[in-house]
Amino acid sequence: MKKIIKIVFYPFYCLLFRLLQFRHLRNFYYCVFKYQSYKLLLANDFTTKNEEGVQVQYYHRKNVNFPHPVGVVIGRQVRLGMDCKIHQNVTIGGTVGKDGQPTLGDNVMVYANAVIVGPIAIGSNVIVAANSVVTQSVPDNCIVAGIPAKVVKYLDKSESKKSGV
């Protein structure tokens, strides 16, 4: 009985209980709040100016799409082309001991857990497969995969339009 009274009347537990009850009853509002706060956190990560003065608006102007923006790391000097799509847990940046950052062309699709490092250039209409590590420059219109990433297939114009690249 003491335990029940302590839990019910102890302010922290009471507040926690009410919050959980509210979340359960108002799951829709909780999800909206969570999404809005996540957008705010994402915006705060990108709003700090880097050496080139790039802010969150840079990614919107370039029409860069983050379908699942969890664990995405983009270096300060990375240059992105138009209409890039970057999935979760992607790392794009420089390597230790080398100057320069990657440059991605237009319509590049980078899938989950891919790593693009070093002063390299990724061509336009390129698909970087999941779990790939790209350490060398990649030509236009191709699919790269593997560790280290190699060109698996070259895309012609009809294939690149079908795949969304």
Automatic annotation (TrEMBL):
This is Bacterial transferase hexapeptide repeat protein. The keyword Transmembrane helix does not apply. Belongs to the transferase hexapeptide repeat family. Transmembrane segments: none annotated. PANTHER family: SERINE ACETYLTRANSFERASE. The keyword Transferase applies. InterPro entries: Hexapep, LbH_SAT, Trimer_LpxA-like_sf. GO terms for molecular function: acyltransferase activity. Keywords: Acyltransferase, Transferase.
